[in-house]
Amino acid sequence: CAALIILAHCSAFASGANSHQINIERGPAEHTLKRLAESTGVSIVFDLNVVREVLTNQVHGQFSVNDALSIMLDDTALRGAQTDGGFIVIAPAGSREGRKMSRRLAR
Predict the structure, then answer these.
(1) What DSSP line would sit under 58-91, residue for residue?
(2) Distance between CA 82 and CA 4 in Å, rounded?
(3) Phi, psi (5° rounding) for residue 35?
(4) Residue 44: DSSP 8-state
(5) pLDDT at 20 exceeding the cut of 90
């Protein structure tokens, strides 16, 4: 049974290029991803079973959503990317979707 989590924040559309002040400590992905959504106004979609027990990196400073996400997920088992619709999808790094996301973030 998959537990799909959608963290939706309805502030103005948060483009990946806009800069946000972000102060998120290292911690469990299910909590830090929620904080990223709150800090940036971007909706984040993930499977709770995929992110459970993953620790993400701290992110402190002024960053775009994509840069903050890249720092947060660096050297973890997760990858994420912002879609054309403006929301972020999180997937396992080793999955086909995760590899596609890594290429997208590298642009």
Answers:
(1) PEEEEEEHHHHHHHHHTTSSEEEEE-TTS-EEEE
(2) 17
(3) -65, -40
(4) E
(5) yes
pLDDT of 52 > 70? The answer is: yes
Q: How many CB atoms lie within 10 A of CB 87?
A: 18
| Terminal Cα-to-Cα distance of the chain (whole angstroms) | 34
Beta bridge pairs of residue 27: 56
Q: Which two tokens stand for residue 22?
A: 């972000």
User: Which tokens go with 41?
Assistant: 């106004």
Phi and psi angles of residue 2, each rounded to the nearest 5 degrees, phi first: -90, 140
Residue 1 tokens, joined: 């049974």
The predicted model scores a pTM of: 0.78
